């Protein structure tokens, strides 16, 4: 099993005021799944993604990744997992504006040991091709449309060959056409074997996944397979 969560809870304490965010969540995710974590604003879905992606830690409960309990890992071990096992795609793209598409995509590999420059360039070209942006390789990121920027972000997430790609509201800053294209790319990557965990508040976007976990007020209210998965026309 890739991810196992048992009775996971999260609360934040500020000036002795305790704010509960997640309550006794239990579920598992297999390698190769495409799962949407869905819920309204404030439901705890981004907090859950941060815990699953090693950006935050749970207050209570157990989180196992590839069979190993993550709960007691120190910051150095968590940082290593972030750099080697997961890729992130965020709503705001988070690209470096005055650098090329290829330079943005290759960036995560600068923190990866044991990879020479030729291998870095090969991986970057492969990731850029996977999102259909080979013709934009040498363009600066600030010359791209919003949809193209998000494709670059996906390529950057892919380049380390991660076990999971986390996509946090990846269509939030895009028009409907560009958003559909981005979701089609994520769907195609999943069909090629990549595990995708999507965070969204939109039912339409969630239906590109094969399974939807719904949160309300930090509680898991449903966990169901998608009966009519959206695929549209896959982006070339």
**Rg on CA atoms, Å:** 18 Å
- Topology as H/E string? EEEHEEHEHHHEHEHEE
Total of helices: 7
Shape: globular
- Tally of DSSP β-strands: 10
The overall pLDDT, averaged over residues, is 93
Structural class: alpha/beta
CATH class type: Alpha Beta
Helix content: 25-40%
Q: Order of strands across the biggest sheet?
A: 6-7-8-3-9-10
**What oligomeric state best describes the polypeptide chains here?**
single chain
**Largest sheet descriptor:** 6 strands, mixed
- Report how far the terminal alpha carbons are from each other: 32 Å
Protein architecture, described:
This protein is of the alpha/beta class and 236 residues long. The protein has one domain (3-225): P-loop containing nucleotide triphosphate hydrolases (Rossmann fold, 3-Layer(aba) Sandwich), CATH 3.40.50.300. Helices cover 31% and strands 28% of the residues. The protein is built from seven helices and ten strands. The strands form two sheets. A six-stranded mixed beta sheet has the order 6-7-8-3-9-10, with helices on both faces. It has a four-stranded antiparallel beta sheet with strand order 2-1-4-5, with helices on one face. Helix 4 (117-130) crosses helix 5 (146-158) and helix 5 runs parallel beside helix 6. The model has no long low-confidence stretch (mean pLDDT 93).
